[in-house]
Design a protein that fits this description.
Arc_rbn_hlx_hlx; mainly alpha; 3 helices; 80 residues; single chain; Predicted_DNA_bind_prot_RHH; elongated; 80% helix; Ribbon_hlx_hlx
Length: 80
């Protein structure tokens, strides 16, 4: 594990200390969990943005619709 040193505003450090005590976990573990959650949130936001952009892209819509036609054909073939 690599050591990381950083400066944070005093109010944030106070909140960190308070919550670490309440949760009875070390501050570095709380920071690690919070950072993982935040980075996962950013990743999901990027997916949402890409799908929002795709819904406006005519080529993507055409591709999706073409895929649905094939999917329905497969379903019909399997139910016969």
């Amino acid at each position: 594990m690599t050591t990381f040193t950083s400066s944070l505003p005093n109010d944030l450090l106070e909140m960190l200390d308070e919550h670490a005590k309440k949760l009875e976990i070390p501050k570095n573990k709380l920071i690690e969990k919070a950072l993982r959650l935040y980075l996962e949130h950013l990743k999901r936001a990027a997916y949402v943005k890409s799908y929002s952009q795709a819904k406006e892209d005519k080529d993507m819509i055409d591709l999706a619709e073409e895929g649905m036609v094939e999917y329905f054909k497969q379903i019909e073939d399997e139910t016969r």
